[in-house]
């Protein structure tokens, strides 16, 4: 069943009576039990979209369906959803158990049942035995687990999470990412997760919707989004990317030959008709290029000059100039001790990228 957004737009009254379109014609189909992330830069409309699903904002246009039901103007407490915010919003004067019990008491559940539910849910978020603590006696990560427990205990059909790990330090955030994903799989609730952190979205999601300027640009699995970005923006926003701009010089049956900077010929697989001289962008991920010594004799490799070498532990990052206008970043994994600092600044090298690792974009 899940959640559907059909042509959903939201405009806010701006200054000088000009409307500001924060969300523009979003169409989404999120399946029941799916972990779906909305990913995009700050200000792109993620929170506004989530708030409309929750019912804190109403769409200016369009309709939102949850579990097949149109939500119309239903207020938040009449929707089968629950929201977890970045700033936990726990009651400071209530214990962990009292914080979690709060919503259940409002629903007038019997005391014994409330106690059982609290024990269960605290076990799930790995806080068994913390019932009597106050929020100030907990770490940030533990407070966020309580906030999560408070939402999960209500057994919503859909849980909305707005940058819930944003306040945690990197190490704890990475640990919580995996725990959250595991918990989501256990409870089978649909999660709609908002983040501006591409690595977080790739780690946790079944599918990701990439947003920019109020629009959804691409929806896909982490692999699809990373390997087959459909636009310049998505390619650039997700992971590190090299973009080489060139002109089509020749079209063969299933290949294009592209000339970059009047100097470098690149062959890419492509089966749609393009016109000669048309400008295209070639997307190359840094880890998909390999460096060889200048003597390497492969006609499909490119000659370049190393301009910068940066050792970053797991990898070494090389900046290699290919043409007057174009440098490419290449990441080589440091698997063997002997591979460290293999190439020096100023050295000529060959760069090899297999044709099927190059993605061609028209925008
Ligand atoms: P994100 O969560 O992706 O950072 P938001 O959804 O919070 O983005 O905001 C999207 C845009 O809508 C921003 O430009 C923001 O300033 C604007 N906006 C959000 N809420 C309101 C509001 N209540 N009134 C006016 N503008 C708003
Ligand atoms: Mg936001």
TrEMBL record:
Q: Which residues form the ABC transporter domain?
A: 3-238
- Keywords per UniProt: ATP-binding, Cell membrane, Membrane, Nucleotide-binding, Translocase, Transport
Please give the catalytic activity noted in the UniProt record: ATP + H2O + polyamine-[polyamine-binding protein]Side 1 = ADP + phosphate + polyamineSide 2 + [polyamine-binding protein]Side 1
* GO CC terms of this entry: ATP-binding cassette (ABC) transporter complex
**Membrane topology (UniProt):** Peripheral membrane protein
Give the main EC class. translocase
Known InterPro entries for this protein?
A: AAA+_ATPase (IPR003593), ABC_SmlMolc_Importer (IPR050093), ABC_transporter-like_ATP-bd (IPR003439), ABC_transporter-like_CS (IPR017871), Mo/tungstate-bd_C_term_dom (IPR008995), P-loop_NTPase (IPR027417), PotA-like (IPR005893), Transp-assoc_OB_typ2 (IPR013611)
Q: What is its main location?
A: membrane
Q: Which residues form a coiled coil?
A: none
Q: Where in the cell is it found?
A: Cell inner membrane
Q: What Gene Ontology terms describe what this protein does at the molecular function level? A: ABC-type polyamine transporter activity; ATP binding; ATP hydrolysis activity
Q: Does the keyword Cell membrane apply?
A: yes
Q: What is its EC number?
A: 7.6.2.11
Q: Which Pfam families match?
A: ABC_tran, TOBE_2
Describe the protein's quaternary organization and the partners it interacts with. Answer: The complex is composed of two ATP-binding proteins (PotA), two transmembrane proteins (PotB and PotC) and a solute-binding protein (PotD).
Q: Which NCBIfam families does UniProt cross-reference here?
A: potA
Q: State what this protein does.
A: Part of the ABC transporter complex PotABCD involved in spermidine/putrescine import. Responsible for energy coupling to the transport system.
Protein family according to the UniProt entry: Belongs to the ABC transporter superfamily. Spermidine/putrescine importer (TC 3.A.1.11.1) family.
Q: What is this protein called?
A: Spermidine/putrescine import ATP-binding protein PotA
Q: Which source organism? A: Gloeothece citriformis (strain PCC 7424) (Cyanothece sp. (strain PCC 7424))
Question: What is the gene name?
Answer: potA
